[in-house]
Design brief:
Radius of gyration of chain A: 22 Å
Structural class of chain A: alpha+beta
CATH topology of the largest domain in chain B: FAD/NAD(P)-binding domain
CATH architecture of the largest domain in chain A: Orthogonal Bundle
Shape of chain A: elongated
Strand content of chain B: 15-25%
Helix content of chain B: 25-40%
Number of strands of chain A: 7
Bound molecules: flavin-adenine dinucleotide, iron/sulfur cluster, FE2/S2 (inorganic) cluster
Largest sheet of chain B: 6 strands, antiparallel
Mean pLDDT of chain A: 90
CATH architecture of the largest domain in chain B: 3-Layer(bba) Sandwich
CATH superfamily of the largest domain in chain A: Alpha-helical ferredoxin
Order of helices and strands of chain A: EEHEEEEEHHHHHHHH
Low-confidence stretches of chain B: 408-437
Shape of chain B: globular
Oligomer: heterodimer
Helix content of chain A: 40-55%
Largest interface: A-B, 63 and 49 residues
Radius of gyration of chain B: 23 Å
Strand order of the largest sheet of chain B: 15-14-19-18-16-17
Number of domains of chain B: 3
CATH topology of the largest domain in chain A: Fumarate Reductase Iron-sulfur Protein, Chain B, domain 2
CATH class of the largest domain in chain B: Alpha Beta
Number of helices of chain A: 9
CATH class of the largest domain in chain A: Mainly Alpha
CATH superfamily of the largest domain in chain B: FAD/NAD(P)-binding domain
Low-confidence stretches of chain A: 122-138
Distance between the termini of chain A: 55 Å
Number of helices of chain B: 15
Number of strands of chain B: 28
Chain lengths: 251, 566
C-alpha cells in the first residue's frame, strides 16, 4: 500500500516574519509512518524548522498542532489522518521561533518561580523513612501503614515523573496563557511529585504555591486529560495534590 | 572555596544525566556553570533509559559486593576498561543510588528496601529500577535538583545552543564556541569545558535506539581539533529491538531480567537457543554474546514473555507492556515478540584518564561520549551509573585543576596518546607548566576568544545524500559480524565521499573523519573481543589487550594501541 499525503505547513522564517502556508507532497510504503517520518524526509530537501528527538513519544520535542489538534508528530500516524491534506502548525500559546519550532522556555521558567525542587539533600534515606514514621505512629501497625503509604507515594511519584514538559496540555487548556498565574498540568505534575515526598518544612510554601498556581485557576474542563501523550492519570494526581495541599491530608 | 568568586564558569556541553550531574557537583561547591544543550534536559536521550541502574546494594540476600560488581564489569568489557576507573565507579555506586532516592526517585521497593532485578552479564540482582522507565524518573529528579541552583544563579542554562568548536591555544582548552539555534547568533563561552554530549548513535541514523539529537557531531568536531578518541570499533548491538518508523525501539533487558526467554522455531517447535547453548541463565548473557548468536542464526528470533507472572506485568513492567501493545499491536503476555539486534551504545569515545581529563588541559568528557568504564562491551545498567559518576568526577577535576592552576602548582594533567612506537603502550600524563597562573590565563583568554569566533558551517540540505551514504557505509562495515573486505569497502566509500572535500560543510567533513576513524579502528583490531567480532580473526589475542587510540594529525587519521594500567 502506498500512503500519499499533502502536508500543508505554516511557515515563518523567523520570529517577526510574516507567516505563510506551503504545501509538500509525501508518499511512503511504510504503514506505520508518522507525521515525524514525513518531516524527517522533507527536511532532507527543504529547510523546514521542526524539533524532534526520541521518535517514540518520550521526550515531548515534536509537539505541534496537526489538523487543528495538539499532538506529538511522532505519535500521529499518517494513515490515521482522515484527510489527504494534513495541516501542520506550531503550538499557538508559545512564541514561534521558526516554522514549527516554538519557544517553550516559559514552562521551565514557571517551575523555577514555583521552586519545584525537593529540600532534602544532606540527610540519609533512612531519615526520610524516620521522618515519615513520626506521622504514622509506632508499632507494627504503624510500620505497615508506613510501608503502604510510601509505596503508594512511589506510585504517584512515578506517574508524575512521566510528564514530558511537552506543553500539549497548556495548548488545549481554556484557562492557560503564558504569563498568567494559572500554570496548568505541566506544573501540576512535577508539583505532585514534590507533594508526595517533600519534608514537612517545605509543605506550607508548597501548598500556597499549589493553591495559587494550580487549584485556583483550574476550571476543571480537564481537556488536558484527553491530550496528554504520556497518558498521565491527571485525576489521580490532582486528587492526591488537592487532598494534601488544599485539605491538609498529606499522608 | 575562597577563590570561587572569580573562578571562570565551567561550560558543560550536554544536559542529559551527565551534564546535570556535573552541574550539580559544581553548584554544590558554590561553582558556576553554564549548561549548554541543543535541546532542554527533558528531551535528552537519558530520559529513554528503561531497565535500571547498577549498584551492589546487597539487599537481595545474595551476598553481593562491590568487588563482584567490579569483576562483572571488567569481565563483560573483556578487560579493556581501565580497572582503576571501574573500581572507582563500582565503589561509588551504592551511595549514588541512595542519593538518587533522597532526591525523590521512586525506586521499586519491597518492605521499604530498594528492590533489584537481574540484568545481563551479572549473576546477582544488582539493578535498581523504576518499572521500565528508570531514565525518566532519574531525569525528573535530577532536573529538579539542578533547578534549585538555577534559581540561586549558580547554573545558567543555555538550551537551544549548539556546540560548534573549542577554542584551543597551545594544547589548552580556553572555552567553547556555540550557536544559538533560535537566533543563529554565535557565542564564545570562556572557561573549562566538560563534554557531556551523549553517544555517536547519530552516525547510524535510523538504525539505533537513541535520539536524533545525539548526532555525534560534537565528538567529530573535537576529533578534528586534535582530541584523542578511543575504542571506536566497539559498538553495542542490543539483542532485543524492533523496527519502528525512523528508529529501532528498545525492548528493555529488564524483560529478560524478569524471566523473558529468547526463542526460535525449529522443526515447528520452540527452541530456546540461548538456554540450550549456555544453560539456564543463557537469556541473561552479556549483550555482545547474544547479539552475535542471533546474527549467526538464519531463523527469526522471538522474545517469549508468556511466562511472566501477572504481578510482574502489573508492578514491574506495565509500561513495557503498554509500549509493545502500542507499537506492535500485540500483547507480549500472550504472544512472543519478534526481535532483532539494533545499535544501542558506543563503548568508545573521547579518551579520558581516571579524572575524566582529555589530552587537552581544561577539557573533560564524561557520560556516553567518553570512553571510560565499559571496555569492549557494556553491561546494561552501568551507563546511567557511569553518566552520574562521570559527570561528578569531571566536575571535581575541574575544581582541582582550577585551584591548582591558580596556585601555579600545575596539577592539571592530561593524557597524550603517543604516536611513536617506542612510547606505544604507555599513557603519558603531561603536567601543565608550573609557572603559569591558570586563573589569569583563563581570564585573559576571554579577549583572545572574542577575536577568534570563526565561521562554522553545519550540515546542509544538499549534503543529505552524502550523509546517507556515509551512514550506510558505516552500518555495513560495522555490522555485528565483520571482516576485512567489508571494512575496507566501507572505508573506500568514505574516502570517495570526501574526495569532494572542497564542497563539504565543516560538520560533514568532521563526521566523515570520525567515520574513517571508526572504520580504521575496526580494521586495525585484528582479533575478536566483546562487541568486535572479526570473522577473519575469530580468536581473542593477548597482544590486543589494549585500547585503540584515534588521532587526527597532519590531515590524516592515525590509529595506535595503548595499554591502560593493568
Ligand atoms: C532506549 C535506551 C535505553 C537505555 N536504557 C538504559 C538502562 O536501562 N540503564 C543504563 O544504565 N543505560 C541505559 N541506556 C543508556 C543511557 O541512557 C545513556 O548512556 C545515558 O543516559 C547517557 O547520558 P548522557 O548524559 O551522557 O547523554 P544524553 O542523555 O544523550 O545527553 C546528551 C546531551 O547532549 C546534548 N547535545 C548533543 N549534541 C549537542 C551539540 N552539538 N551541542 C550541544 N549539545 C548537544 C543533547 O541535547 C543532550 O542534552 C539506554 C539508552 C537508550 C537509548
Ligand atoms: S502533563 Fe502531559 S500534556 Fe502536559 S506537559 Fe506533561 S506530558 Fe505534556
Ligand atoms: S520526538 Fe520525542 S516525543 Fe516526538
Amino acid at each position: 500500500m502506498i500512503i500519499r499525503k499533502e502536508l500543508i505547513i505554516r511557515r515563518q522564517q523567523k520570529k517577526d516574519a510574516a507567516p505563510y502556508w506551503e504545501s509538500f507532497s509525501f508518499e511512503t510504503e511504510e504503514v506505520g509512518a508518522t507525521v515525524a517520518t514525513a518531516l524527517t524526509e522533507l527536511v532532507r530537501e527543504h529547510s523546514i524548522g521542526w524539533e524532534c528527538s526520541c521518535l517514540q513519544k518520550k521526550c515531548g520535542a515534536c509537539a505541534m498542532v496537526i489538523n487543528g489538534v495538539s499532538r506529538l508528530a511522532c505519535d500521529t500516524k499518517l494513515v490515521d489522518c482522515k484527510t489527504d491534506a494534513i495541516r501542520l502548525e506550531p503550538l499557538k500559546k508559545f512564541p514561534v521561533v521558526r516554522d514549527l519550532i516554538v519557544d517553550r522556555s516559559a514552562m521551565m521558567e514557571r517551575l523555577k518561580e514555583l521552586s519545584v525542587w525537593l529540600e532534602t539533600d544532606g540527610g540519609s534515606s533512612e531519615k526520610l523513612v524516620e521522618r515519615k514514621s513520626e506521622d504514622v505512629g509506632e508499632g507494627k501497625a504503624g510500620r505497615l501503614r508506613l510501608r503502604k503509604e510510601s509505596e503508594s507515594a512511589d506510585e504517584i511519584a512515578y506517574e508524575a515523573s512521566k510528564c514530558l514538559q511537552c506543553g500539549l496540555c497548556l495548548e488545549i487548556c481554556p484557562n492557560f496563557a503564558v504569563g498568567a498565574a494559572f500554570s496548568g498540568m505541566a506544573a501540576m505534575s512535577p508539583m505532585t511529585r514534590l507533594i508526595v515526598s517533600a519534608p514537612k518544612e517545605q509543605r506550607k510554601q508548597l501548598a500556597r504555591d499549589y493553591e495559587k498556581s494550580v487549584y485556583a485557576g483550574c476550571g476543571k474542563s480537564l481537556a488536558c486529560r484527553e491530550v496528554c501523550p504520556a497518558g498521565i492519570n491527571i485525576d489521580r494526581l490532582m486528587s492526591r495534590s488537592n487532598a494534601a495541599a488544599i485539605w491538609g491530608r498529606w499522608n | 572555596m575562597s577563590d570561587s568568586g572569580n573562578a571562570p564558569a565551567t561550560n558543560i556541553i550536554g544536559a542529559g544525566l551527565t551534564g546535570l550531574s556535573a552541574a550539580l557537583t559544581l553548584a554544590g561547591q558554590g561553582r558556576k556553570s553554564r549548561l549548554i544543550s541543543v535541546q532542554s534536559s527533558e528531551r535528552a536521550q537519558s530520559n529513554l533509559a528503561e531497565g535500571g541502574i547498577n549498584a551492589a546494594l546487597n539487599v537481595s540476600g545474595e551476598m553481593d559486593s562491590v568487588e563482584e560488581h567490579f569483576a562483572d564489569t571488567m569481565r563483560a568489557g573483556c578487560y579493556l576498561a581501565d580497572p582503576i576507573m571501574v573500581r572507582q565507579l563500582t565503589k561509588a555506586a551504592p551511595q549514588i543510588v541512595q542519593k538518587l532516592q533522597r532526591l525523590g526517585v521512586p525506586f521499586a521497593k519491597e518492605d521499604g528496601r530498594i528492590l533489584q532485578r537481574y540484568f545481563g552479564g551479572q549473576k546477582k540482582k544488582r539493578t535498581a529500577f523504576v518499572k521500565s522507565s528508570t531514565g525518566k524518573a532519574l531525569m525528573a529528579a535530577m532536573i529538579d535538583a539542578v533547578r534549585q541552583y538555577e534559581v540561586a544563579g549558580l547554573v545558567e542554562r543555555y538550551s537551544h545552543h549548539c556546540f560548534e568548536r573549542l577554542f584551543i591555544h597551545e594544547d589548552r582548552c580556553l572555552g567553547a564556541q556555540c550557536r544559538d539555534a533560535y537566533t543563529e547568533e554565535r557565542k564564545a563561552f570562556p572557561g573549562p569545558v566538560i563534554v557531556a554530549a551523549g553517544g555517536m548513535n547519530g552516525m547510524f541514523f535510523g538504525h539505533t535506539t537513541g535520539t536524533t539529537a545525539n548526532t555525534g557531531s560534537v565528538t567529530a568536531n573535537l576529533f578534528e581539533q586534535g582530541v584523542v578518541l578511543s575504542n571506536l570499533e566497539f559498538i553495542q548491538y542490543h539483542p532485543t529491538t524492533v523496527s519502528i518508523p525512523g528508529k529501532r525501539l528498545l525492548i528493555s533487558e529488564a524483560a529478560r531480567g524478569e524471566g523473558g526467554r529468547l526463542m526460535i522455531m525449529r522443526d515447528g517447535r520452540p527452541c530456546y537457543f540461548m538456554e540450550e547453548k549456555y544453560g539456564p541463565d543463557g537469556n541473561r548473557m552479556p549483550r555482545d554474546v547474544i547479539s552475535r548468536e542471533m546474527a549467526l542464526l538464519s531463523e527469526d528470533v522471538f522474545l517469549d514473555l508468556r511466562g511472566l507472572s501477572q504481578a510482574i506485568w502489573e508492578r514491574r513492567l506495565p509500561d513495557l507492556r503498554d509500549e509493545i501493545q502500542h507499537y506492535l499491536g500485540m500483547d507480549p503476555a500472550k504472544e512472543p515478540v519478534p526481535v532483532a539486534p539494533g545499535i544501542h551504545y558506543c563503548m568508545g569515545g573521547i579518551r579520558v584518564d581516571e579524572g575524566h581529563r582529555t589530552n587537552r588541559s581544561f577539557l573533560y568528557a564524561a557520560g556516553e561520549c567518553a570512553c571510560a568504564y565499559h571496555g569492549a562491551n557494556r553491561l546494561g545498567g552501568n551507563s546511567l551509573l557511569g553518566a552520574i559518576f562521570g559527570g561528578r568526577c569531571a566536575a571535581e577535576s575541574v575544581m582541582k585543576d582550577l585551584a591548582g592552576a591558580s596556585k601555579g602548582n600545575g596539577n592539571a594533567r592530561r593524557i597524550e596518546a603517543s604516536n611513536s612506537n617506542e612510547n606505544a603502550g604507555k599513557t603519558r600524563f603531561a603536567q601543565a607548566s608550573d609557572d603559569e597562573n591558570g586563573m589569569e590565563f583563563l581570564n585573559g583568554a576571554e579577549e583572545i576568544m572574542s577575536l577568534q569566533i570563526a565561521a562554522y558551517s553545519s550540515l546542509s540540505c544538499d549534503e543529505q545524500s552524502i550523509e546517507k551514504k556515509m551512514e550506510e557505509a558505516l552500518f555495513s562495515g560495522l555490522s555485528i559480524l565483520r571482516n576485512e573486505e567489508r571494512l575496507t569497502q566501507a572505508h573506500q566509500t568514505i574516502l570517495q565521499l570526501y574526495n569532494r572535500k572542497e564542497t563539504l560543510s565543516d560538520e560533514l567533513r568532521a563526521r566523515l573523519h570520525l567515520a574513517e576513524a571508526m572504520l580504521l579502528s575496526a580494521l586495525e583490531r585484528k582479533e575478536s573481543r566483546g562487541a568486535h567480532t572479526r570473522m577473519d580473526y575469530p580468536e581473542t589475542k593477548d597482544a590486543f589487550r589494549a585500547q585503540t587510540c584515534a588521532k587526527w594529525e597532519a590531515g590524516r587519521v592515525g590509529i595506535t594501541f595503548e595499554k591502560r594500567a593493568l
